[in-house]
Amino acid sequence: MSAGAVVERLRRAGLTVATGESLTGGLVSAALIDVPGASRAVLGGVVTYATSLKAQVLGVEQAVLDDGGPVQAEVARQLALGAARLLGADCGIGTTGVAGPGPADGAPAGTVFVAASLGGAVRARRLAVAGTRPLVRRAAVGAGLALLLGLLEDREQTTPVDR
């Protein structure tokens, strides 16, 4: 998925994005910021690698973390929403999972959850990626960008256009 396409859509719509990242460790933000002109759309990102920081910094509900751990769709959703809220962005992207090489938090390596938010809409996706740690992390970046792009495309199709 092209970060350029996401940044272009955000810029065209006058929207901003923030990221709440765990397993990607800032790679989503880096991909977005690599795009020329990203400063008009990208506000920033927060890496909450430690489970406790997910709750303390981005407001992931402690009960959700206690009940299912950090590797679940609801955590990705709350990371996306929490980053957008904390940084004052219109959109958010959240990533969590296990990059490997071994299992962690009760999930096998390659288990990834990504989410994107735009206003009240939030979409999440689960991935099961076979491969190296860098491959798992890159797949998470692409999936998070793709989710946000889908939300932006849906918004464009439902937003009235002045003629």
Distinctive features:
alpha/beta; Maf protein; globular; 5-stranded mixed sheet; 163 residues; 5 strands
Describe what this molecule looks like in 3D.
There is one protein chain. By secondary structure, this protein is α/β, with parallel strands linked by helices. It has one domain: Maf protein, CATH 3.90.950. About 45% of the residues lie in helices and about 20% in strands. It has 6 helices and 5 strands; from the N terminus they run αβαβαααβββα. Helix 1 (about 5-15) runs parallel beside helix 6. The termini are far apart. The model has no long low-confidence stretch (mean pLDDT about 95).
CATH topology: Maf protein
Nearest-integer average pLDDT: 95
What's the CATH class label?
A: Alpha Beta
Structural class: alpha/beta
User: In which order are the strands of the major sheet placed?
Assistant: 2-1-3-4-5
What's the order of the H and E elements?
A: HEHEHHHEEEH
What would you say the CATH architecture is? Answer: Alpha-Beta Complex
Termini separation: 31 Å
- Which blocks of ≥5 consecutive residues have pLDDT under 50? none
Strand content of the residues, in percent?
Answer: 15-25%
Under CATH, the homologous superfamily reads: CinA-like
Number of helices: 6
The level of helicity is 40-55%
Overall number of domains: 1
> What value does the Rg take, in angstroms?
15 Å
Total strands: the figure is 5
Overall shape: it is: globular
Biggest sheet record:
5 strands, mixed
